[in-house]
């Protein structure tokens, strides 16, 4: 198979694979596996390299085009024109020499030769021929040289594209596709995080000197999988600066098909309060407060319903805060932050959600 066709084939295959990966990324949103993101970057780099190679192959093919008449390439066109001009000059000089050699004596009636003045064009111009003797053959002037047209390089073919049956590329305003009711949707399970990702995605609100630290832990402090989130805190202040927590912001997601935000929680058993909040942003949210002493270990859920005046089709934030009194140190463990419909998982520990307070 020609090299150009091989390159076009490879580009087409990579573009189709890239299309599928981008659809998968749009579906998973924030939960896109790292291997998918890495493969997208690798394929985009490979496509760029193949396209550059295809451009070089097309340029080389255009430079080696053979002229259909002269058999020359475009780079030799100017040399052919010079050669043709020299041939015309030599033929003209030869014709003039033959004429002077064969002309009759000066006293012949036919010896009247046209006078050549200093303004006569150079030999390369069309010569002026004198009258010839009776019955002499009329010399035919050499044909004017017509330069051959320089062949036009063949334009490079357009780069291959997907066929009409390929699905269109997704619009990259990341959105969360609504999942049918009765299916749990994971927001964070912490399986694909490392310490650097935690610093990028989770922001600690220290609030006037209170201390907090996020890190990853393994068994036994988790619900399932291989790791969970630990939040270590030290509340140093009394009211009103008696709290510390972390915020998690993400691209807007559609939670309108669900009734509860739930997270697996291992409490430290203290009398401090835990505040779970969600909203369109960390400046417009709804929150629920409960005592860590009432929770223990298990599922902790916050109702998504109520008079909170939030657009559940555009949720982009959740946060977890610890409030004193008492002051002092503690640690809680969090796993499997998800949205679901209440009643899907019977037996989970659920707080009293009858009178949540709205904050803006």
What topology does this entry show?
Blueprint lengths: L2 H26 L5 H30 L13 H26 L82 E4 L6 H7 E4 L5 E7 L10 E8 L7 E11 L6 E7 L6 E9 L2 E8 L5 E7 L11 E9 L4 E13 L16 E3 L1
Helix pairs in contact: 1-2
Low-pLDDT sequence parts: 107-127, 145-151, 160-167, 169-177, 344-360
Helix vs. strand class: alpha+beta
* Shape-level CATH architecture of the domain at 185-359: Sandwich
Tell me the distance between the termini.
66 Å
What is the typical, i.e. mean, pLDDT? 74
* CATH fold name of the domain at 185-359: Jelly Rolls
Please identify the top-level CATH class of the domain at 185-359.
Answer: Mainly Beta
Task: Characterize the quaternary organization of these chains.
Answer: single chain
**Number of alpha- plus pi-helical segments:** 4
Radius of gyration: 43 Å
CATH superfamily of the domain at 185-359: Galactose-binding domain-like
Overall 3D shape: rod-shaped
What percent of residues adopt helix (DSSP H or I)? 10-25%
Largest sheet: 6 strands, antiparallel
Please state roughly what percent of the residues sit in beta strands, choosing from under 5%, 5-15%, 15-25%, 25-35%, 35-45% or over 45%. 25-35%
What is the string of SSEs from the N terminus onward? HHHEHEEEEEEEEEEE
Strands, count:
12
